[in-house]
# Entry
Amino acid sequence: MTTVILAAVLSLAILAGVARLLSAGPLPARVDAVALTVAAVAPALIVWQWPAEAGAIWAIACCGLWFLWRLVAPRKAELPTPASGSGRGAAAYRLLFAGTALWISFSLAGTHALGPSGQLGSIMLHMFAAVALVFAAAAWLLGTFAMPKDAVGGKIRATVGSHEALAAAAVALCFFAVV
# Structure
């Protein structure tokens, strides 16, 4: 049942990624959209036991390097607006997201030959990460659709918020698939 729900959420995340790609302005914003989609899709490939486990891990690592570059790269004179999702805080969040996707990919690809206490600790850690990602998805949806129009930081665009929420939900479902 988890794989069916994961397929539906992942399909929606890919569609939201395409919509975000088409509506994004500059090239780095487009690469952000593609990299976040790849980071959400790669663990799902391991859930479905596709043979390209190493390819999925390398893809997530490349996404993480891109977000790390976005975090430490020099900025232009104009400051990005918080609602655009292009600042250092957004890059730090996406780097953390890519690290989480890499972690679950290693967990899904690895063996689970731990003792009973290691298995219980692993289950608790994976469930904690899944719940944290569900809260992140809910926060993105609330920040996108429940913010007043005159909010201080500006309203998050629907394509950005929906894509981020669906990507977080897809990775959360991958964590649930481990348990």
Remarks:
- The longest helix spans residues 116-145.
- The mean pLDDT is 82.
- Helices lie at 2-23, 27-47, 53-72, 88-109, 116-145, 158-178.
